[in-house]
């Protein structure tokens, strides 16, 4: 299944030149300060409290966001992280993308008990199902089925969830 994003065309210069027409400047400044503070905070409970309180993110109990994780600075409230999930070192999670002739926004939903390896990039509009494993350095550009093991650039399903019949097309092709 393709990513679920809202598309907003622009008529003049590329969409990044119009960034402060799409998101308030002081919201970005506040989010940047909170995110940068959290990136270097070694205390997971404090980090999660910062995300919940100042960024309005939905973060599950015992979620562990490693050092240097970079959350979307403009729309972090569109990111949700399930309980007991691990987000690996230096991962980037985006809820927006600014292109030449449009910008796109999309919620990122990361399920419960998910493991995301270091240096992964997650694009807007993606859902990662419960119990999924994302290998290090993966570009997550489409939904990840619950219980699947995925990796690579472009991302591929390396192991289907248990209970999937052999020869069954990947989940995104079945929908």
From TrEMBL:
<protein>
    <submittedName>
        <fullName>Acetyltransferase</fullName>
    </submittedName>
</protein>
<dbReference type="InterPro" id="IPR050179">
    <property type="entry name" value="Trans_hexapeptide_repeat"/>
</dbReference>
<dbReference type="GO" id="GO:0016740">
    <property type="term" value="F:transferase activity"/>
</dbReference>
<keyword id="KW-0808">Transferase</keyword>
<dbReference type="InterPro" id="IPR011004">
    <property type="entry name" value="Trimer_LpxA-like_sf"/>
</dbReference>
<feature type="region of interest" description="Disordered">
    <location>
        <begin position="155"/>
        <end position="175"/>
    </location>
</feature>
<dbReference type="Pfam" id="PF00132">
    <property type="entry name" value="Hexapep"/>
</dbReference>
<dbReference type="InterPro" id="IPR001451">
    <property type="entry name" value="Hexapep"/>
</dbReference>
